[in-house]
Structure of Phosphohydrolase:
Amino acid sequence: MTRPRPVYYAPLVRRSSPPLRRRLPSLLLAVAAALAAPEDAAAFLWPNVPEQIGRALASGDVSERRLAATRVGELAPETALGLIQKGMSDPDVEVRLHLARAAVSFRMPRAGDLVVEWLGEGDARLRLAACDVIRAAPTDRSVVALGRVLGDPDPHVRIAAAAAMGAAGLPDAVSPLLGHLDDGAPEVRAEVARALGRIGDARAVVPLIGKVQDAVPEVRRATARALGELGDARAVSALILALQDQAQDVRVEAVTALGRLRSDEATPAIAELVAASPGGLGGSGAFPGARAADGGTSSNDVREAAFRALGRIGSDAAVRVLLAALAKDDPAAPRSAVRDALVSAGRAAAALAPAPAGAGGAAGASAAGAGAATGATVQKNAAVPALIAALAAAPSANTAAGAALVLGELKAREGLPALVRGMQRGVVPLRHGLRALSALGDPAALPSVLELLGDADPSVRREAIRAATALLDPARPDGRAVDPARALLNDPATPPDEKLALVRLLGRTGSPRAQEVLLPLAKARSGPLRLAVIEALGAARAAGKLGAAVDAALLEALDDESGDVRLRAAVALSRVAGPGIARDLLKRLTVAAEQDRGALGIALSGALSRAGDAGGAKDSAADDLARDVAAAVASAPDAARDALLEGLGRMRGQAAGAALARMASAAPIDDRRKIAEALAGHAGHPGAAAALRKLAGDPDPGVRANAVWSLGAIGDKDALPLLLPLVKDPDAAVAGNAAGALGRLAGRAPASAPRAAAALCAAFSDARPYVRANALAGLTVSGARCDGAAARDLLARDPAEAVRLAAADHLAQVGGEDGRRALARCASEDRNATVAARCAHAAPPRAPPSGAEDVVVFVVPFDAGRGDAGRDAPVPRAPFALVRADGLMRLGVADRRGELFERAAPRGPLRLAVPAPLVK
């Protein structure tokens, strides 16, 4: 049984005050969100403004046309693109420049063809603008035309032309670029080298090798990076020579390129960088002429780049160098370049290893292709055996601790015996060994951890408690930790913070004996201890009298004066309360006005999720309960209606699904919105899909958004004709959810995959960022793909962070060698740190999330003036954007409690992005 996991969220955007939002009708919420949006959000325009701008662009008054051109960017894309196309031939330079900027911001399809003639204009500003437009929206014709601009007298134009040619990635651009690799301006030479690296044509390798010794450091730096992107083993010797360059920026790029080439031939040279002391590479250190800082790059940056390169090479020799570097590493540091490199070596070797017999040819072919492209030899996993051997010897404390931590992060269970023996011998420091065992995640390590719960060193005890807690799972009851934890909990000498941790540990055991220990503490006077006990009692459900006693204790806590206690008790009841107390909770929710209805609603919906026809056997008591809950909806106050409807959605059995389907047609807007969400829990009911198809045509966009998302969860191929046109719905939440629903549907029904994929590929040109992002995520979850260049273009040029993140995930799964190259460029060039990090870590195909769980999310506003979200309550009907672990984004508005419920969300991290109405 999945359990609801509450998530509290404070979106970092300005919003209107809750009283104002409560007074607004639901149809005005989008306007209110726009008025409350940050300065860069789309401004509200009166309906006659586009017509006025269009007339002004055709005016004979040049000043009027210029003013109108500056306002084209404010219009909706479908209106603006037509005006841009007409105005690109305007005789006034200023008008054309303004329209060119608008074309770039809108990513106007095939805009490059409209500005080809500008490349011959006498005004350098027009030639520059043409290059910018072609870079944003290249076509074959416009990119080829850029070749003649590489000889432009203005170096800025030549730079822009080379950048545009590189961004387009067309092989036809290679020859013109090679002809200008010796341009008189060093900035142009550097841009030409970068462009050749982006295109990835092997014809550029030998000419670029000759530029490794260019007189200008920036050219050498760009050349080294380009050679790494090209991935040709012929460049290894030149790059090794570049490791001795006087400019530290060049050395960083050279060693990074060698890492990309995975050349073991370079390991000895890279080892020299690692062997130098962290501060010893500057001044008169290992490299003649090296400076303490060069272009913002320090000697430590060179050393860390060397570690990363060795990790990517991952050979026996590279691993030996990294193991030796552990001796000078600090194991107490949260992150370490040496440890990260060893982890990278272990993971890369596993990813490049040949596919096992019978595992299918695709994975093996992909790995072989990657190895051939880089000129590397596929290495066996040298890291794990070397780490185990190091622990078996007599390493220094730092080396042993670092090796243990790396084994833990690699989840190398074969290293468990060596790790435990190292701790017993005193070779591995206990604190670091326990951290490693925690990261390892192997339940077989639990006895070794429990032995240290009573250690005399407080830091070891705390680490042991944390490790034991991490190794336990309430879904798999394990009573081995109960007795040692109880002994420490009853010991008066145990510090309060350790008692809190021990209580959480007992909850994680899932053992009935642990709940016997916890029950007497449910009324503890200490507030933190009582909260911890209540939370621990909700970790796992007990049977029989013990379960009834737990339910009674949690029910009593629902009456507590403290809101924190009531909320914690409600969450615990939602996880463990049986259907037997659901009627008591139902009565409290609908009748007792003095009760905390918010807490009761959380508890009731969870209790109802365990009522139904388990195993297919009809449960008449559950059907009666479902009918009673449905009857209570009509007379319940607004504060309780959403909880009741959510509970019906979480109930199993035909009665609950029938009640929701019956209420869907005549319910108020807020009820319909919640019913559309709740029907996602009734895939087996024949009327659920029919009710959702009807709700998908509701006049309220919030209802449509929830209905479309639920159809993605339970719909079949018959839902496809309904979902296809909704990808173009005027409401961004509806269209985005439709894109996500198509992806989920295509994953379940392969027969519908071609039509769904075609619609998702077409959505790449949608003006709304979240629609583009969900189209990419939908393709990823369904395993489909479009023309590979389209996703790479979105990763390189889309202005929206959400789209580039989705493109990175998509290319990591289905992008092939071209996708790998695009991710490498993104990791080094994207200006957004989040996107760059995703690209850097997305190269190995991401494993799909394992398992699913029900998730409760409370949307809490962030007041920019107060700067403190903790004092605010969830906002009713607040817009949200929930990003799931599989990359899909659910859009919509919260219910009347400021809550949303996501059925069977994939396990993994959840985050909430800026809501769709606030995103331009």
